[in-house]
UniProtKB/TrEMBL annotation:
Catalytic activity, EC: 2.6.1.19, 2.6.1.22
One function term, GO molecular function aspect: identical protein binding
A Pfam family this chain is assigned to: Aminotran_3
EC class (word): transferase
Species, as recorded: Loigolactobacillus bifermentans DSM 20003
Keyword Transferase appears in the UniProt entry: yes
Biological classification of the source: Bacteria, Bacillati, Bacillota, Bacilli, Lactobacillales
The keyword Transferase is assigned to this record: yes
Protein name: (S)-3-amino-2-methylpropionate transaminase
Tree of life domain: Bacteria
């Protein structure tokens, strides 16, 4: 079995039949009968096993995964050290609620996260929960309790989750269509989306424009002295893989300091090596504008439900007892996986691999941009790269139909991809960081072939 997994890990995409194959088709038919249609799926794929950046379906087809569980599988599928750690923990106990009894892996993981977190403090603390949405929920509660203020500012294009609070913080209304998502204290400012800044503006003028728009929120929506926190994705995920310009974040940090507002970095999708550092906030800290709170999840547990909120000891110990906690948060099996994730990122030098892989893909995307006018923009940091499709480079009209055809064509040839953006016109690159250069080049070849076919469909 191990030999077979190694072969899959090092293999290239190979699809030998139209998808779904006969075995996968049976499961997909069963899924349609018992799983709500609203959950949705756009891939005719039923996974049997995974290794590295590759998956194999029930019919033996092999696909390169550029989705990675939407940013969950940074360390890749089937890491032997993680499998062994989870198996060993399962021999002792699955779970022990941290409010009742203390288990060592919870303490060790919070200790290491607190030491690694790029915050403006030498003494940090962390709490563990189950998901990105829970991390954001708790980050907001912590900010409100610590500052004794109620209001939160979020951004256009944001995605923070699907719970009642986080869906109100989320910009894309398809996630709450037909529901009453009005929760008090949530205000929205325009995200610094430089590709779609006012026409003719320079970079510095665009950044000034977005900062002025934030100040208008203070003037016309919520006075700054009533704002507990500003929640920012360092690179927007669902919004279209849009990096927040460092100049903007530096100014935002000054604004937060001026008004006593906590700067909350939503690193749910950007964390754990994806950017070329453990967090994008590491880049911020190096430049002198670290956040006050980091909320993170996804790849922290290598596929097991795990998330964290990390902040300074002053903030964490300045909140009302009882407002944070979780029955399953910091589950023992998830914690041992999280500890091994940190080891693997360090020992396998995944941050450097993220930079290498991101350069390969971004270079490939920019070569396509030079050939196809429908490629409007290529952007990202490290191995979190987005490619935006438009009808033409002048109008920049989003082209979601092309993107959907591109995804459909690519999967039939062994490349899994996902869209993003408010108009679903961006392809996001979220491949496991362990992908080999040969696999990425094979993926780029499939990508261009699928794009050519999509343009003629």
């Amino acid at each position: 079995m191990l030999k077979s997994s190694v072969a899959l890990k090092d293999s290239l995409p190979a699809v030998t039949m139209p998808l779904p194959g006969p075995k996968a088709a049976v499961v997909l038919k069963q899924r349609a009968a018992c799983v709500p249609n609203a959950i949705g799926t756009q891939y005719p794929v039923v996974i049997k096993r995974g290794a590295g950046a590759m998956i194999e379906d029930l019919d033996g087809n092999r696909l390169l995964d550029w989705v990675g569980g939407v940013g969950v599988m940074n360390v890749g599928y089937s890491q032997p050290a993680i499998i062994a750690a989870v198996q060993a923990q399962a021999q002792n106990y699955f779970h022990s609620m941290i409010n009742v009894t203390t288990h060592p892996s919870y303490v060790e993981l919070t200790r290491r996260l607190s030491a690694l977190a790029p915050l403006n403090s030498t003494h940090n603390k962390a709490m563990l929960i189950n998901s990105g949405a829970e991390a954001l929920e708790n980050a907001v509660k912590i900010a409100r309790s610590y500052t004794k203020r109620n209001n939160i500012i979020v951004f256009s294009g944001a995605f923070h989750g699907r719970t009642a609070l986080t869906v109100a913080m989320t910009a894309k209304r398809s996630y709450s269509y037909g529901l009453d998502h009005n929760i008090s204290g949530i205000y929205r400012a325009p995200y610094p989306y430089l590709y779609r800044a006012p026409k003719g503006y320079s970079r510095s003028e665009s950044i000034r424009y977005y900062l002025d728009q934030l100040e208008l929120v203070f003037a016309q929506g919520c006075p700054a002295e009533f704002v507990a926190g500003i929640v920012l994705e360092p690179i927007q995920g669902e919004g279209g893989f849009i990096p927040a310009p460092f100049e903007y974040v530096a100014a935002l940090r000054q604004i937060c300091h001026k008004y006593g507002i906590l700067l909350i970095a939503d690193e749910v999708q950007t964390g754990f090596g994806r950017s070329g550092q453990l967090f994008v906030s590491n880049y911020w800290q190096e430049r002198g504008f670290a956040p006050d709170i980091i909320a993170t999840a996804k790849s922290i547990g290598a596929g097991l439900p795990l998330a964290a909120v990390i902040s300074t000891a002053e903030i964490m110990d300045g909140i009302q007892p009882g407002i944070v906690g979780s029955t399953f948060g910091g589950n023992a099996m998830a914690c041992v996986a999280g500890l091994k994730v940190l080891d693997i990122i360090r020992d396998q030098d995944l941050c450097q691999k993220a930079l290498r892989n991101g350069k390969i893909v971004a270079t490939g995307f920019r070569a396509l941009q030079a050939k196809y006018p429908q490629v409007g923009d290529v952007r990202g940091i490290g191995s979190m790269v987005g490619i935006e499709f438009v009808h033409d480079p002048i109008s920049k009209q989003p082209y979601p139909e092309l993107v959907q055809r591109l995804i459909n064509n690519a999967v039939q040839h062994g490349l899994l991809m996902e869209n993003a953006g408010l108009h679903d016109n961006v392809i996001r690159f979220l491949c496991p960081l362990v992908a080999t250069p040969e696999q990425l080049k094979a993926g780029l070849k499939i990508f261009e072939s699928a794009l050519t076919a999509a343009l003629t469909d």
